[in-house]
Specification:
- There is one protein chain.
- By secondary structure, the protein is an alpha+beta fold.
- The chain is built from 11 helices and 12 strands.
- The strands form 2 sheets. The protein has a 7-stranded mixed β-barrel with strand order 1-2-3-4-5-7-6. A 5-stranded antiparallel sheet has the order 9-10-8-11-12.
- Helix 5 packs across helix 8 and helix 9 packs antiparallel against helix 11.
- It is globular.
- This is Spore coat protein CotH.
């Protein structure tokens, strides 16, 4: 580690300690805890309820054994063994409301594929708890939009959670991103698939923080480094790609070399003077349509983490590299007060210009792609098509209407903010703090309207 990186890590660690202290001092303590109150779930319609019990404290690895009962107003939908752990990096440090990942297990405590809430059978699941996102629906909204655009994104359902006898509030039940026929549908890559067509897929790569670390943790075993530095950064930062499938413990040298060389070839072509050539340029390596839609979703939401964190890429056998699925938009749609994350009139892909000191930077890809007239023409055409349908103002607002109506009908909003008394309080990194839920959701609505208007003008002018 260089001295400059060590200094950068130290500064970020100090900032983390400061922010945690700030969050702790901003908590309200002016009313009874939810354990002493009665949660109203007596209506004819209720959200699905996950009731989880464990005989040990839930930690961030290893998973602890537990029992899940899933029910709704009709009765018990599923009951069985699970293993559960905390998940998330920043959320564990900053948020009282924790995020959880769990695996469904059989009687012998082995992994068990099941269907929960009619999702395709699998074993790995997530309970995402909106906390700084006081609208409660940012992730739910963007994943539904992505699926409506024709891409796989984690299926989501608004639910409630009771954990070890204590009501935990509203959660978004989600699929964990992984290779699976019903999720990221790419070929299984076996250790013996080391040549020819078999070697070409499938792969899942991430641009993200290293697992279990907020400021490092990268190694030659779990990642590789881009040959092209990010534009505009001033701390000698680099872009790192993490092996997700096969992961660092399973990947064999031939797989590691293939996907590393493939991305290096893509970047070399994109950086070259002939990058726009339809045969020998970048289009020879990537599925352009997937990159355009990935760009649109991150720009629609001005995702402050977009392109540089929680960024998934996948490549199937015999196919080009695709962008996505999208992931983790709780700080998007105007819910970040740093690096212009709350603004409606900036490009998310130009993050490096605003925050050149940040350790995690945006790859040069997006700036370079917009220098190709053919790419821009396809982007404009796709944007105009989506604005006449899936991404029209009415379609998006109607989605929000339906989420809010459901949560009001089931009293999920009231129940959640009884448990987590955060309305009217700054929770990192809120750009807006509403005094009540209606103000929070109206902020989201107006932010989206303004963002769409700005993008209409800016994309047209590209």
């Amino acid at each position: 580690m260089t001295r400059r990186y060590a200094t950068n890590f130290f500064i970020r660690a100090c900032l983390l300690i400061f922010l945690v202290a700030t969050v702790l001092t901003c908590k309200k303590d002016d009313g009874p805890r939810i354990d002493d109150e009665v949660i109203d779930r007596t209506g004819t319609t209720t959200l699905p309820l996950f009731t989880i019990s464990t005989n040990a404290e839930i930690v961030d690895e290893p998973k602890v054994d537990g029992r899940l009962t899933l029910s709704d107003s009709t009765g018990v939908l599923y009951e069985g063994n699970i293993a559960i752990e905390k998940r998330g990096a920043s959320s564990q440090a900053f948020f009282e409301k924790q995020q959880y990942g769990f695996e469904t297990r059989d009687a012998a405590n082995a992994d068990l594929d099941v269907s929960l809430l009619s999702y395709p059978e699998e074993e790995d699941w997530i309970l995402n708890g909106p906390y700084s996102d006081k609208s409660l629906v940012r992730n739910h909204l963007i994943y539904n939009l992505a699926r409506d655009m024709g891409h796989y994104a984690s299926r989501t359902e608004l639910v409630e959670l009771t954990l070890n006898g204590s009501f935990a509030g509203l959660y978004v039940f989600m699929e964990k991103l992984k290779r699976d026929k019903g999720r990221i549908d790419i070929s299984k890559l076996n250790p013996e698939d080391i040549e020819g067509e078999e070697l070409t897929g499938g792969y899942i790569i991430k641009i993200d923080k290293a697992e279990g670390s907020d400021s490092g943790g990268y190694s030659l075993q779990n990642s590789f480094v881009s040959n092209v530095p990010p534009i505009g950064s001033n701390q000698n930062q680099s872009i790192r790609f993490l092996f997700d499938y096969p992961d660092a413990s399973d990947i064999v040298p031939e797989h590691r070399t293939y996907i590393q060389d493939y991305i290096a070839s893509f970047e070399s072509a994109l950086a070259s003077a002939f990058f726009a050539d339809p045969v020998s340029g970048y289009a020879n390596y990537i599925d352009v349509d997937s990159f355009i839609d990935f760009f649109i979703l991150n720009e629609l939401s001005n995702n402050v983490d977009g392109y540089r964190l929680s960024t998934f890429l996948h490549k199937d056998k015999g196919e080009k590299l695709k962008a996505g699925p999208i992931w983790d938009f709780n700080l998007a749609f105007g819910n970040a007060d740093y690096c212009s994350g709350g603004e409606v009139n900036v490009w998310a892909y130009r993050f490096n210009e605003r925050c050149p000191d940040d350790f995690w930077q945006v790859p040069f890809w997006w700036d370079r792609l917009l220098q190709d007239p053919a790419y821009v023409a396809k982007l404009k055409e796709r944007w105009n098509t989506l604005r006449g349908g899936v991404l029209s103002n009415n379609e998006i607002q109607e989605k929000i209407d339906s989420y809010v109506a459901l949560m009001q009908e089931t009293k999920a909003i009231e129940n959640n903010f009884k448990r987590w008394d955060v309305l009217g309080i700054y929770i990192w990194p809120n750009n807006f703090v509403g005094n009540n839920y209606i103000e929070e959701v109206n902020y989201l609505r107006s932010w989206i309207e303004n963002r769409l208007s700005w993008l209409d003008t800016e994309i047209s002018a590209l």
